[in-house]
Fold these 2 entries.
Entry 1:
Amino acid sequence: MGDSILLAHGSGGRLSHELVEKTLLPFVANQELNKLDDSAVFEASGRLAFTIDSYVVNPIFFPGGDIGRLAVCGTVNDLAMSGAGPLYLSLAAIIEEGFLLSELEQVMRSIKEAAQEAGVSIIAGDTKVVNRGQADKLFITTSGVGTVSPGVDIAGANARAGDKVLLSGTVGDHGIAVMSQREGLEFSMSLESDCAPLNGLVAGMLEISPRIHCLRDPTRGGLATTLNELARQSEVGIIVEEVTIPVRGEVRAACDLLGLDPLYVANEGKLVAVVDPGDADSVLAEMKRSNYGRDAAIIGEVTSEHPGKVMIRTRLGPSRILDMLSGELLPRIC
Amino acid sequence: MGDSILLAHGSGGRLSHELVEKTLLPFVANQELNKLDDSAVFEASGRLAFTIDSYVVNPIFFPGGDIGRLAVCGTVNDLAMSGAGPLYLSLAAIIEEGFLLSELEQVMRSIKEAAQEAGVSIIAGDTKVVNRGQADKLFITTSGVGTVSPGVDIAGANARAGDKVLLSGTVGDHGIAVMSQREGLEFSMSLESDCAPLNGLVAGMLEISPRIHCLRDPTRGGLATTLNELARQSEVGIIVEEVTIPVRGEVRAACDLLGLDPLYVANEGKLVAVVDPGDADSVLAEMKRSNYGRDAAIIGEVTSEHPGKVMIRTRLGPSRILDMLSGELLPRIC
C-alpha cells in the first residue's frame, strides 16, 4: 500500500479498511475496538465525566513527546481535572494526503504507550484523509469518558476564600520545547515537553483529600490564564507569590531571549489544585511523592478581595495584576 | 472582535474565551457546558455506546445541510446503529485563520437545530485555530455517548443466514448533493443531501423488534461497502436485488453523467438493517411510517453461501459480485 497516505485511505472502502487493520489497529487493539462497529459499548454506572480536545501541535514530533502522546495525555488530564478516573478514549485522525505511513506508525506507538501508562483503552476511532495542502500533516481529536467517585466535587467554581493554591511543578516546559523545535532553536539538550498523564497523581491527591475544590491543567494560555479562569468561575480573588513558582533555568533563559513570560507558556503535564487550607500540606506532600509532582509547591491563596482577578507578588516586592493571556502567544502549541 | 477568526481566538486566552462565550455557547448553551470545566459530568448506568467521527466535508455548506448538521447527525447515527439512544455529544472544531465568524455562526445554528431534532445535548467542546492554509476552513469532530437498552444486541457480526436485509430509503443523495455543489453542477433544484438523525427511526424499529441483528449507516463507500463490511464481519454471504434498491431519478442521472455507481455513493440519513425473516415485514412497515424511512424496502437476504461476499442480481437478470469500494470515489464527502 505504498509508504504514504493516499486519498483512497479515506474513502471508506478497501484501502481505508487496510489502513485501519494493518497500520492503526495493531497498536491499539482491544476486544471492543476490534469489532469495528459504529460505536463501542461498555458497562458503567454512577457519575461519568466526558471531554473532547483537538490537537494541532506543530511540529508533530517535539522533544519529550509527539502529537500522539499529547492527544492521549491531554484528554486523560481533562478527565482527571474533573476528579474522574479515565476509562475509555475515542480517537479521530485527520490526515493530509502524502503523510508518511512510517510517521503515522510512530504516532500510533506513542498513543499506545501513553494509553498504557494512563491505563485507558481506545475503544472507538475514525480516520479522514484530506487533499494535500488542506491540512497540515496530522490533526488528532480525542474524546474521553471516566468515572467520578462518590463524594468528589471538583469544579472551577468551587474555590473559596482561604483556600491554598498548589502547582504540581515547573511551568513553560511544553511550550518552550515545541517552540524550540519549531524554530530550530537549540536552547538546551535537556529541554523537553512535560507532556504526561496526570491521572495517577490526581488519584493519589484525592485519596488524601477527597474534598479538593478545583483542579485544572494550565495548557494554552499557561498558568496565568488558568488562575484567571478559576478566579472568574469562582468569583474570588487569587494572590500568588512569583518566587514560589518553579521555572527551569533553560525555560527562563529561552523566555528571556524570546520575550515571553513563562507564566503564559503552555504546559501539558502540570496541574493547579485549589484545596482547603487544612489539607494543603498533606496534599502537597502526596504530590511530591509522585513522579509528576516532585517539584510541587504552594504558590498562593484564594481571597475574597478583588474577585475575578489574580494578583502576583513579584520577586521585587510589589504586587501587580496577573491578567489572562491576550493576543496569540504561540499558535498551534497543542 | 472583527468579522473573521484570528489566531488569537485559539490562544486559550482572552479572545478564546470571548469566542466561546459570545459566538459558540449562545447556540448550544446548557447547564453542563456553561460551567466551562475540563470535563462535563453526567449520571448514567447500564450499557453505554461511545463513538467519534471527524467531518471534513468540502464544501462546508451544501444543499440539504452543512458540516454542522452533518457532524451532529453522523455521530447520533453511529450511536443509533449500535441500538443506542443518544444522550450527549462533545464537539471539537479546528478552524482556519480568516474563517468568517458569520459562517461559524451559521454552522452553530445548524448544530443547534440538529441537536434539538435528535434530542441530544452538547456538553463538552474545544476550539483550535490553525494558520491560514494549514486547514481548509473548518473541520469538526463529534463524539457521542448513548444508552443501549437491555436485550438489544446489535453488531456487524450478528447477521445470520436467512435474515432479511432492509434499506431505509434512496441511496446516493448526500454524495451527489455535495459533489454537485463542489463542482458547480446543477443537476436539479430538488437534489439535496439526506443528512438526518436516525435515532427516532431506530427507536421505532427496536420497539417492533428488539432483536434486530445489524444496523449500519451506509456513509463513505456507500451501500455496497456497508453490505461488504457486514458480510465480512458476520462471515456470511449477502444477496441483494438491484431492482429493489431505491435511487432518485436525479441521482441516477448525475451518476450516469459522472460515471459513478450510486451503490458506492455516500449517504448520511439512511440505514441498512439485518433482521430475522419473521420480523422483516413488521419492521419494514414501521420504517415506512417514519419521516426518514418512507421509501424503505427489503433489498435482499443473508445466505450461508459465498461467506464474506455480496452478490447483486442485476436488473437484466444475472448475478455479479458487488465488491467493496476500491480507490477514492469522492474525497472529503463527509
Entry 2:
Amino acid sequence: MSTTNATIAPGSVGEVVPQRAAFAEPLALKAGRALSGYELVFETYGELNAARSNAVLVCHALSGNHHVAGFHRDNPGKAGWWDNMVGPGKAVDTNRFFVIGLNNLGGCHGSTGPASIDPATGKRYGASFPVVTVEDWVESQARLLDHLGVRRLAAAMGGSLGGMQALQWTLSHPDRIAHAVVIAAAPKLSTQNIAFNDVARQAIVSDPDFHGGDFYSHNTVPARGLKLARMLGHITYLSEDLLGSKFGREIKGEDYGFHYDVEFEIESYLRYQGDKFAQIFDANTYLLMTKALDYFDPARAADGDLARALGAAQAQFFLASFSSDWRFPPERSREVVEALVKAGKSVSYAEIDAPHGHDAFLLDNALYHRTVAAYFDRIAADVGAGARARPLIIGGAELEEMKGYAGTREAEP
Amino acid sequence: MSTTNATIAPGSVGEVVPQRAAFAEPLALKAGRALSGYELVFETYGELNAARSNAVLVCHALSGNHHVAGFHRDNPGKAGWWDNMVGPGKAVDTNRFFVIGLNNLGGCHGSTGPASIDPATGKRYGASFPVVTVEDWVESQARLLDHLGVRRLAAAMGGSLGGMQALQWTLSHPDRIAHAVVIAAAPKLSTQNIAFNDVARQAIVSDPDFHGGDFYSHNTVPARGLKLARMLGHITYLSEDLLGSKFGREIKGEDYGFHYDVEFEIESYLRYQGDKFAQIFDANTYLLMTKALDYFDPARAADGDLARALGAAQAQFFLASFSSDWRFPPERSREVVEALVKAGKSVSYAEIDAPHGHDAFLLDNALYHRTVAAYFDRIAADVGAGARARPLIIGGAELEEMKGYAGTREAEP
C-alpha cells in the first residue's frame, strides 16, 4: 500500500492528476431545461497520437468517477476503479491508446452536480439540479472531446450504466465513434430493475434528513437512506452463489443471539458497505444516476424496435456479459447483439463464465481481460494505434503465453 | 362483494368467527427466556371427527394470520388468505377435515405479540418482546391442539415460512403428526435471503419513528421503514417475468416526467402496497418474523446434515415448489426431498410450472390445487377422514373431470 509499490506495479499508469474543464455554453437537456454552464473533472492516460485517432472514452457506472486508473499522490494505495483494465500493457493498453475517464455531469466527485453552487442563486443546486439522461451525458462528453481535440473516438467503453453510454454514443454521434465496448449492460432496465431502483430512491427521499433534496443547507445528509440504497444495490451486484460461498450463514458468535443487532456475517458486510458509501456519496447524485438508468431505452424512439433504433449506428460493437450476473444477465446483452445483427452491424460478443455476478465486470478474470485485449488489438489495427509492444498484463502479471492470444477469440460469435 | 355472494360462493366455508385461547403456563423459548403466558387467536373450519384424527393445522407465512378461509361478518367481501385451498369440496376439503388456522405468537392480528400488554409491566412489550423461532411456534401450536382436544394432526401444512413450521412439526413432535405439507419453502435461508431480510430490518430500525421498538408509547409507527420493507419484499415474492408482463415499463404520463415522483406503473404498485402494509402491520412483528426465517435451520443441530436431522421424523411428506419462485426456488425444495429420501422417509414432490414467483403458493393454479387435493385424498384415506363427496372445487368451479384426478400425480417422484 506504499507509494513505491503502487508506482512500480507492472501495468500501472502511475500517479495521475485530475484535470478540470469548464463549458460556458448552455447544455440543453432531455428534461427540457438547460444547464447554463458546467464543469467536468477528468483524467487521461497515455498520449493522443498525431492522427488523433487513438482516444478511448471510459464511461462510469452508478457510483463510479473519473479516477479510472493509476493513483493519486494523496492516496497512493488506492488504484482507479478499472486499473486492472487500463494501463501500459493491459487490455486497454495506454502505450497505444489515449484513455479518458471523467466524472459524469450530475456526479459527486468534482463535476458539476447537485452539490455544486448554482451560479444563478449562489446556493447549492440540491433539488433544483435537473434530471440528466444518458443522452445528456453523451453530449457533455462530446464537448469534453472537443476540448481535448478529439474529433472521433477509437472507442467508448463502459460496464453497466457505463456500457449504456458507450451504446448511446453510437446513436448520438455515429460519425464520432469507431467502436463501442459495451460490458454487462442492457438495452433498457427490466421492471424488476426499476423496482429495485425505486426502493433505493424511496429509502433516500423518505429519510427525514433528505429535506426534499436540500439537505446541504441543513448541514446533514440522508445517511440512513443512502445506506439502505447501497445495501440493496450490493445484493443485486453479487451473485447468490458468491454471497453463499463468501458469507454463508456464518454468525459472529457461537450461537444465535436472539436480538436485532448485527449477527450474520452478511449483515456485517452489507452494513459496513452501506455506512461507508453513505459517508462519501451524494444522495441527489444517487437519485439522478438511478433515474438515468430507468430512462435509458434507445428502442423507445423506434416504437420499441431495437434493431431499427440501432440502424443509425456506424460503429463496430463488442459486448460482453457474465454468466452469474442477475442484474443484467447475458440474455440482456444478447438482445443487443441480436438487434445489431438484425441491423447488419459488425458485432463481437463474449459470454464470460464468472461466479461474481454483475460486479464481475470490475474484477480480475483472465478470459474476460484477454477477450477485451483481443478486441482492442483489433481496434488498434483499425485506427492506427500501433501494435502491442509487450505481453498482456492481467492482474499485475505478464502473460507470456499470450503471444498467441488472438486465438482466444473463441467467445466471439 | 355482498354477504350473499360470499355466502353462496361454491366451496366457501362461509362466515367464520375468530376464537381465542389463553395459555397460563410459561412457555420456554429458544432465546433462553420464557413468556409467562400468552393468548392465541385462531379459526377452525369443518368438524373434528369422533376419532379426532382429521385435524389439519395451517401455518401462516411472514405477514399471514389466522383468517385462512371464509369471511368475517364485518368484511364479507374479503376472503381468508388461503380460501382457494380450504373449504367444502376444495383441495383441503372441510367436509372431511377439521382445519385450524392461527395467528402465530408474536403476530399482530390478535395473538400475543410486541403490541400486547406485558402483564409484568402493564405496558406494551415493544422492544422487550422476545425473539421467537419456528420451534417456539410449534410448541405454542401444540398447546393449542391440546386445548382443542387434538392429540395427533392428520397434517400440518403451510407455504414459505408456513412450510418451515410444517417441517419443524415432524421434528419437534414426530408422534403427533401424520403428514407434513411443505410448499414453496426451504430447509434454511440462503445468504441472499438473509441479506434481503436485513435490508428490510435496517429500514425499520433506522426509521426515526421506530424509537428502538417502543414506538407505541410515542403514538407513532415507523411507516417509512415498514413501507420500504414491504416494497422490497414484494419484489422478491414475484417473478421477474411476471413483473415484466404485468407492469413492463409503463409510465403514468405520455412521456418521461424528469422528476422523482411516482412515474413508472411498477413504482405506483409497490408504493401502494408498501403504504397499505405500513398502516396495518406491526413493525416489531415484521422484525420477529424475518428473524424466525433467518434462524430456521433444522440441519444445524446435526452438523449441517439435513438427512440426519430429518431422521427423527415419522411423518409422511408432500412438498411442492414453483418454477419461477426465486425466493425459494425448486432447488431448495429438492434439497429437502433428497434429504428425506436419504433418510428413508416417504415423500411426494411436485414441481409446478407457474409464472408468478413465490406468491404462486397463494394463487389459483389448477395443477397445483389438483396435486394438493390428490395428496389430501391420500391423507384422508390414511387417517380415516372419509371420501371426497363431490368433485374438486378450484377457483370457485367444480372440476367434473376430476373423477380421475388421481392420475395427475405424475408430478410425484
